[in-house]
Every structure is written in C-alpha cells, then in structure tokens.
Amino acid sequence: MKYIFNIIVCCLFTQFINAQQPDKVNIEQRSVMKLAAQCLKYSTVNFDSAKYFGSQAINLADKINYTSGKIIARCYLGIAYTRSGEIPKSLPLQFEGLKMAKDNNLPKEEALCQYTLGKSYLFLKDYNSAMRFFRDARNGLNNFGEDNEINSYNVAFADIELSIGRLFMISGKLDSALYFLKRVEKGNGEEFTDGVIKIFLGQAYFLDGQRALGLTYLTKVAKAKPHIQHDYTIAWACSILAGCYKEINQTDSAIYYAKIGLSAAQKINFKDRLLHINQLLADLYEKIDLEESHNYLKKAVELNEELFGSDKIFQLQKAVAEQQQQIQEAEKKRLAYESNIKQYSLILGIAVILTIALLLYRNNRQKQKANSVLQDQKDKVESTLSQLKSTQAQLIQSEKLASLGELTAGIAHEIQNPLNFVNNFSELSNELIKEMKEEFKKGDTEEGFAIADDIEQNLEKINHHGKRASDIVKGMLEHSRTSTGQKEPTDINALCDEYLRLAYHGMKAKDKGFNATMETHFDSNLPKVDIIPQDIGRVLLNLINNAFYAVNDRSKKGEKGYQPTVSITTQLTADTQLLIAIKDNGSGIPDAIKDKIFQPFFTTKPTGQGTGLGLSLSYDIVKAHGGGLKVETKENDSTVFTILLPIH
To answer: Which residues pair with 646 in a beta bridge?
Structure first.
C-alpha cells in the first residue's frame, strides 16, 4: 500500500503543480518535484535515501522560494518519517506544510497535507483524527471535480474513500465500511490499486459474516504473481488472511499465510506488519510450540518498543503539544487581527454613516424641490392620459359601431329576399281570393276549387320564406349578442361562410356598384373548435371587409381584365393547428407599412373611413385564443391574412 500511496501522490500533486503554470515552471522547480518524488519512492525501502532526497527537496524549495515545492517536500519527508516510526519528526513537518498551504491559499496542496496527515494518524491508531483529515481531503478534492485532473484525481479520491472505509471497519461500522469500499471497487479502474481494494473489502466481508466471500478476495491477492502484487500488498493481504483463518480455527492455513506475509514484510522492513504478524504467530504457536511462540513474541515486543516505546510516546506528546501551542498562538493572532479589523471597520462605518447622512440630508432637500416640480408634471400627464383613454374608448366604440353597421347591412340584405317572396305571394293570393269569390258567385265551383289550390300553394311558400327569414334573424341575433367570454365547440366552416355572405351584402349595401367573386375552399373533415364565436366572428368580418375594400379599390382603377376575387380556405396544418386563410387579389400592402398594420390607430383608409383599430383588435382576439395572426402580401398582386388556432 505504500507503493500505491507513492504512485497516487506523485501522479496527483506533481500533475497539479505542473498544470498550474506550465509555461513558468522552471528547471529548479522541476528538480524540487523530482527530489520529492525520490523521497517518497525510497520511503518504503531505504529511509536514509528517503531522508536525503526529502531534505534536498526542502532545501532547494526554500532556496528558490517555491511555495508548492516547500509544502510537497515536507509532506513527503513527513510520510518517510512516519513509515520509519519517527512520528515526532513526521507530524511537525506535515503541519508546517498544512499551515503554508492555508496561508498561501493553495487548496490542492492543502488537500495533500490533509491526506498525508490522515495516513500518519492512521499509523498511530488515532482513528478520530485520521477520519477528520481524510474527510477534509475528500471535501477538498470534491471542489475540483473529475474534469480538472482525470486519472490522478480518481485514484487519489478512491484511496481516500478506501481509508475512510477502513476506519469504519475498525470502529465496527461494517455497513458504512462496505458502502465506501464497494464504491471504490466499482469506480476504480487502476490495476495497481486493485489488490488493495480486494484486501480490505475481503476483510470487511469476513467480519460481516460473509466469510467465504471474504476469504476468496484475500486469497486472490495473497496468491497473486510477484510482478502483479507488490511485497507491501502481499504482506498486508497475508497478515489479514492469517488472522481470518485463526478466527475460524484453521491453524495450519493461518501459519502458512502468516509466514508468507512475514517474508514479504521482511524484504521491505515493513515494521507495522512485522509487529502484527509476529504477534499473530506467537498466538498461533502458543498451543503447538512454546519455544517458537516465545521467539515470535520476543520479536513483537522489540518491534513494539521500537515503534511505540516510552521515548517515542514522549517525543510524540511533545511534538503534538508544540503543534497545539502553535495553533493556539496562530488563533490568538487571528483573533487579534479580527479584533483590529472590527475596530477599523467600526470607525470606517461611522465615517461612512455620517457621510451618507449628510448626502441624504442634501438629497432630501433637493428631492423636495424636485417632487414639487414632478407633482405638477404628474398632474398634467394624468390629465393627458385621462383624455387619451377617453379618446381611445370612443375610437374603439366607433370601430364596434362600424362593424355593427356593416353587419346590419348584411343582415338586411340577407332577409330581403325571403321578405320579397312573402310580399309577392301574399299580393298574388289576395288577387286569387277575389277571383275565387267571383267564380263561386257564377256557380263554377270547379274553377273556384282550382283557384283555392293555388292559394294553398302560395300560403305554403309564404310560410316557407317566413320561416327562412326567421332563421336568418335568429342566427344573426345569436352572433351579435354580447360575448360571454365562454368558449364553445364551433363549426368554423359554417362561421366563415356566414360572415363571408354578411360582409359581401354589407359591402353591396354601401356601394351598389360593388361586385366580387367569392371562393371557398373548406376542409370538410375539420373538427369543431373551442372558441368564442362572437369574437372570432368579429375577426373574420374585419378581415373579409378589408379584403372586399381592397379588391373594390383596385377595381375602380379600371385595370383591363381585372376580376376582383376574395377566397377563404380552411385546413388542418401538419402540427394539428386550424388554419383560416383570407386571400384577396387587391393592390397588396407596401413593404414600408407592412410592419405597422397591427399597430393600434394605424390605417391606410381615407379620414373618416377607418379607426385603425380593426387589425389591432383582431390580433389581440386571436392571441387571447392561443393562436396567431400573420400577413403575407405582394404589392399590386395579392394579400393573405392567416389565422392559426390551436385544436385542444
């Protein structure tokens, strides 16, 4: 695992530092990083070499004032001291690096220091402190995210979560331990960390009662080929595997794997595992060979004294006390600094408040004067606005009355034909009655009854045309009544046809010389649409009237062969909307005014013939129905107004 840790921190933080200023990292800075990396490399096999390279890295970083290098070199040398059991020398170096990182606002280097301190406290079995540092490092790396440093970020983050999983396992929280270890196993794709994950995941499974699965994981690592698994990893795997076999009373297997682990640990002088395995072998041989058990126990005692003897504990306590004193002094300085800042801020705040008060007083005086002027202006604006609203209301009413006049003219013409039939047949019937009376006086009953039959037919025709006129009036009243604002299913084809005829007759009533061809292209498969019929009828009437006005205006110019034509088309669009297109072959709309036609009060008609509100109101009505109104025009050719309505 030391091998893995070396790779992680070398990859992660060397890349971090080089990625910060790739164009400015000079040769000396690279030399610092190389020396620090050598220190970390030798910290598992040769402490003297590790100490040499670490000291050289610190000296060079201090000489060239390379802050990142100072921090990283101290962390790496601190780890080397930890692995050699010299914790009193390790912790001050790492805490010094952590302080430098915080003072210089270097979050990546701060995460490194927290990471290595977690490793040191894990070695000391101070699990609470180790957990705190690992979580701080994890949170620090989370601030950068996977996109910043691709591979090295993932590996470092995985090793931190693996360490957190180990700590939960040590404290007996196996559910939490398995959660973190499974996350690492699932998300980690690095070959050199695969064995470490299997070691601790296997141990967690074993402790959780899944013994067969746990042994499978551990055995796979312990029996791996030497070039795949490092001696350090094999030492860990075998020591834990031996402990598991001891737990289930398989002494032979426990001794077998303990000796394999002992051999691997001796190759690299891995004192922590040497201590653990010697204690384990002493326990295993206690019932088999007391002399062998004593030898292993003696070695374990010597190693324990070397690592955790009274001198070491005293030095560690002294180092921790010094560190706490430094922290307290730093805290006092911070509090004193914050106190000074608060005092200066208070004085500055009072000065700012006084300045603001003076400015506010002056501004208030000016505001009072300005308010007086603004009030006068406001009264004038309100008076003007009131007059404008009154004028606008009158114009809207005029537009409504104009529409009503055109509608009334159309209705009058529509019912004129049936009334003419009624009048004609009633006059004819009166004459026939006189003739019938004369025939009866003459005694010619046969001729009298024949005339009576003619009268009967006339009365049927009078009744028929009377009902027709009544239906027309009812329909017109239905469409002219005040809108309730309630939508109802409506036959659009019928509505368009009705208002086309009304508009035509209305135009005919105003101008006896008016004539135009009317074309309809109705889609017979249209469904009924939920609309407010009176409102959409007003839109149709307005657009059709405009079309008739346009073709009539062009026809008066006397163009040879010109035939005024207005057509209405209804259909469903591809996106299931209802389309109503009203086309005329009038003079078209000039490009200069095309964008203005939907503006309120804009009109091209002569004064007194239009309010300029028809298209504006039509646009608003269609919008209120969730639809749209647009225009396409070619000057001296044609104009098409298109209504699009949603079908719900």
So the answer is: 577
Domains and CATH numbers, the chain: 1-189 (1.25.40.10), 315-464 (no CATH), 488-646 (3.30.565.10)
Which pLDDT value is given to residue 194?
62
Rounded Cα distance between 66 and 61, Å, is 5
Query: Is the Cβ–Cβ distance between 503 and 514 less than 8 Å?
Result: no
Q: Tell me the C-alpha distance between 337 and 240, whole Å.
A: 51
C-alpha to C-alpha distance for 639 and 550, rounded to whole angstroms: 9
**Which residues touch 498 (CB under 8 Å, ≥6 apart)?**
475, 479, 537
| Residue 601 · residue 395 · CB < 8 Å | yes
Task: Return the amino acid letter for 354.
Answer: L
Q: What's the burial of 368, exposed, middle or buried (CB within 10 Å: 0-12/13-18/19+)? A: exposed
Could you tell me if 499 and 541 are in contact, meaning their C-beta atoms sit under 8 angstroms apart?
A: yes
- DSSP for residue 559: -
**Among the listed residues 383, 378, 388, 382, the one whose alpha carbon sits nearest the alpha carbon of residue 600:** 388
Give the residues across from 580 on adjacent strands.
570, 643
CA neighbor of 57 nearest in space, from 79, 41, 33: 33
How far is residue 509's CA from residue 640's CA, in Å, rounded to a whole number? Answer: 25
Q: Which residues contact 1 (CB under 8 A, 6 or more apart)?
A: 196, 232, 233, 236
How far, in Å, CA of 157 to CA of 165, rounded?
12
d(CA 577, CA 645): 6
State the distance between the two ends of the chain, measured CA to CA, in whole angstroms: 67
Residue 298: count of CB within 10 angstroms of its CB = 12
Query: Residue 321: is its pLDDT beyond 80?
Result: no
Range of weakest confidence among 242-251, 400-409, 571-580: 400-409
